[in-house]
């Protein structure tokens, strides 16, 4: 969802970098990239390392970052990424089941999708707090295909993060990578169905992949 369907990764990153700077923590953009695509538990563990195991400082920074995001997006949703609505409308019209498998907590996934007008496009929503092992483990994608009642081999996962792509591949799905903040990793890139600049490009291939023009 974040970084693929919604243009949310950059504003969330910027809020964290500002909040860290205000609290005297030298958190770099490269440091932050290390948590992109991971669930809240795994992200917290990595951030705690970066904050020198100072839990109170991390909590204060998180509160400030959340406050900055609320200030900037409290009255308006994150923008929908180019091509997302077009592709989802085509899949919905063709009755092709779709799920979200996001590292973000389930409740927040539901909220962000609803606010962006995308919730009705999905038959199932899976959040990172619903599995024991987050991405790059396959658990979240296994949960998604189970809830859809389909075989993993019949599915295509769309991912923007390296952790997510690795999770989908491990679960047995074909993977289309649409990079956002992080470039694709060259060592597993040949295993993917495609690496595309945007979901607009995915729309152009939807007839070949799904039998429906977007």
State the share of residues found in helices, binned by percent.
Answer: 40-55%
Largest sheet: 3 strands, parallel
- Overall residue-averaged pLDDT value: 93
Number-wise, the strands total: 5
Which stretches of 5+ consecutive residues score pLDDT under 50? none
* CATH second-level architecture of the largest domain: 3-Layer(aba) Sandwich
- Note the gap between the termini: 19 Å
Number of helices: 9
Number of domains: 2
Q: What's the overall geometry? A: globular
Across the major sheet, the strand order is: 3-4-5
Let me know the CATH homologous superfamily of the largest domain. HAD superfamily/HAD-like
Our estimate of the beta-strand percent is: 5-15%
SSE pattern, N- to C-terminal: HHHHHEHEHEHEEH
Category by helix and strand content? mainly alpha
CATH topology of the largest domain: Rossmann fold
């Amino acid at each position: 969802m974040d970084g693929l369907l919604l243009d949310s990764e950059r504003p969330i990153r910027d809020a964290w970098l500002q909040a860290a700077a205000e609290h005297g923590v030298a958190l770099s953009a490269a440091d932050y990239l290390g948590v992109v695509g991971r669930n809240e538990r795994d992200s917290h563990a990595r951030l705690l390392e970066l904050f020198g195991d100072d839990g109170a400082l991390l909590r204060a920074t998180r509160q400030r970052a959340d406050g900055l995001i609320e200030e900037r997006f409290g009255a308006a949703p994150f923008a929908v990424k180019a091509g997302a609505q077009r592709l989802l409308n085509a899949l919905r019209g063709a009755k092709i089941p779709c799920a979200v498998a996001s590292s973000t907590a389930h409740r927040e996934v539901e909220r962000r999708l609803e606010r962006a007008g995308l919730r009705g496009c999905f038959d199932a929503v899976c959040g990172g707090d619903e599995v024991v092992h987050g991405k790059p483990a396959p658990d979240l994608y296994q949960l998604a295909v189970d809830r859809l009642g389909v075989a993993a081999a019949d599915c295509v996962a769309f991912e923007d993060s390296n952790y997510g792509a690795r999770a989908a591949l491990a679960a047995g799905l074909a993977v289309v990578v649409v990079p956002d903040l992080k470039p694709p990793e060259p060592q597993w890139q040949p295993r993917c169905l495609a690496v595309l600049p945007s979901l607009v490009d995915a729309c152009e291939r939807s007839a070949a992949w799904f039998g429906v023009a977007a």
